[in-house]
Amino acid sequence: MASPDYSLMERLGKIEAKVERPIDGGGGGGHDGGMEARISALEAANLETRDRLARIETRLEAVATKSDLHEALHSLTWKIVGACAALVAAAYFVAKYVH
Questions:
Q1: Domain limits of the chain?
Q2: What is the pLDDT of residue 23?
Q3: Which of 6, 16, 25, 64 could form an SS bridge with 2, CB 3.0 to 4.6 Å?
Q4: ∠ CA 5-8-14, rounded to 5°
């Protein structure tokens, strides 16, 4: 697996640098003699990109959304409010009835 700082564009640039391309004589058309090798390199890069994207999507499924965090904080807030109310009631009881 490639290191995170080694981007896909850098790898494609190195692949394209290895493919020999004759100078275009300006006669028209887009075929420069190295088209098959370039297409093969792009197809290989496409397969690797698809695999990397699948791994990223798998990781994203485990990440909490903003909505999930909001619900969790809302629930926790009401638990804290309830606990504080119980503590206040206990302190009131002790202050009033325990001498």
A1: 1-63, 65-99
A2: 55
A3: 6
A4: 100
Q: What angle do CA 19, 8, 12 make, to 5 degrees?
A: 5
Q: List pLDDT tens digits, range 69-89.
A: 999 999 999 999 999 999 999
Is the distance from CB of 19 to CB of 41 less than 8 angstroms? yes
The pTM assigned to this predicted structure is: 0.39
Q: What is the C-alpha separation between 12 and 49, in angstroms, rounded?
A: 11
pLDDT at 9 over 80: no
Residue 94, phi then psi, degrees to nearest 5: -65, -40
- The residue behind tokens 């394209």 is 16
